[in-house]
Amino acid sequence: MAFSRLGGFQRAAVGLSILLFLLSFIRTAFAADTTYVEVTTNSGEELYLRDDRKPALYTRDFGDCLGSSTINVTRFDAAYYKDNMTVLFHLEGNTAVANESLMMYIGVFAYGQSRFDLTFNPCSAQIYR
Fold first, then answer.
1. Nearest to residue 115, comparing CAs of 89, 92, 76, 90?
2. In whole angstroms, what is the distance from residue 8 CA to residue 3 CA?
3. 3-state SS, residue 112
4. Residues 6 or more apart from 107 whose CB is under 8 A from it?
5. CA angle 118, 123, 126 (to 5 degrees)
6. Based on C-alpha coordinates, what's the Rg of the chain?
7. How far is 87 from 65, CA to CA, in rounded Å?
8. Which pLDDT tens digits describe the chain residue by residue (129 residues)?
């Protein structure tokens, strides 16, 4: 057999090459499970971010300063991702207000300082389920 004629160093090199070749298939198999989210920056640049990344800050606490009101928040969670400095939040609720003008204010405070605020009309927001 040709393999038995090789010296010790050559056998090790061939064995290492075969091992690396086989390991490349394992890495490819795991990489196929990774999904990406397409993001467009303010400057129009398209980025692809891993979907399985972990946020640097996360909360699901919220303050309801009015108690029972015509607008009730039933779910809130927010995450800050430091790799691209984005804030992702989920907000759910219900209201008894019908045919009225409505504006919503969202403020993000971290370490006692205001980091982000947004005032918008949720009725005209492009929200898809």
1. 89
2. 10
3. coil
4. 114, 116, 117, 118
5. 75
6. 26
7. 23
8. 555 555 666 766 666 677 666 666 665 555 556 788 787 777 888 888 777 778 888 888 777 666 677 777 788 888 888 887 777 888 888 777 777 777 888 887 878 898 888 888 877 776 655
